[in-house]
Design goal:
mainly alpha, 66% helix, single chain, 0% strand, globular
Length: 217
């Protein structure tokens, strides 16, 4: 197996495990006729603290889970493929920060679903691609913006007037992804430098040394 296939398989592994966990939970709920929504985030209530960790694994039904499956998988695989050195830390950061955001600032309701992670991954990939000025990552940022750019409206409450849509989770994920993109701006993939850029740097250094030497007279 070549290195590229190994890299791709490695990028798929953790997202697949997380997605499988979501589906297992939903089938358990369906099979036993129960709802685990009480394990979600309940803002400013002690019984809602476990939801900071558990809420992304819970969904209100199969339509809710189906709507989150494709964007979650694509964005998380992109994260683990391009940012494999920091992907686990970014995922944990978005997971916990968005959950804390909901717990402190959400409406008095039960908040569940992986939407916060989707918004977090999308935000991180977009802003990190811009910050790093890497052509590959910039292209990825443009793809994310094109496919999920309309998601930005989901952080505003008026865009989702329905009471069963957690815009707070969307906003928490978006802000978490943005914050982590800046926090990890010096870690992970680095822009490849080409030979002509290195030559220009060497010329600049030589010129600086020349003028410094000239100034010693």
């Amino acid at each position: 197996m070549n290195a590229e296939k190994q890299k791709l398989l490695g990028a798929v592994l953790i997202p697949a495990i997380l997605l499988l966990s979501m589906w297992v939970v939903r089938f358990v709920e369906y099979g036993f006729g129960i709802s685990l929504g009480f394990l979600g985030v309940h803002p400013l209530h002690a019984d809602g603290l476990p939801g900071i960790v558990l809420s992304p694994l819970l969904h209100s039904g199969f339509p809710h889970l189906l709507a989150n499956t494709v964007p979650f998988f694509l964005l998380s695989v992109a994260l683990f493929y391009f940012y494999r050195e920091i992907a686990v830390r970014v995922t944990i950061g978005i997971w916990l920060l968005s959950g804390l955001w909901i717990w402190f600032g959400g409406r008095d309701s039960w908040h569940i679903g992986a939407s916060s992670l989707i918004y977090g991954f999308s935000s991180f990939l977009f802003f990190s691609g811009l910050i790093r000025k890497d052509t590959r990552l910039a292209a990825l940022a443009l793809i994310v913006a094109f496919l999920y750019g309309s998601m930005v409206w989901g952080v505003f409450p008026d865009f989702f007037p329905e009471k069963n849509i957690s815009w707070e989770g969307h906003l928490g994920g978006f802000v978490s992804g943005l914050a982590l993109a800046f926090y990890y701006r010096n870690e992970g993939p680095r822009r490849k430098q080409y030979s002509w850029e290195l030559e220009e740097e060497e010329e600049d250094e030589d010129e600086v040394q020349y003028w410094q030497a000239d100034g010693d007279w």
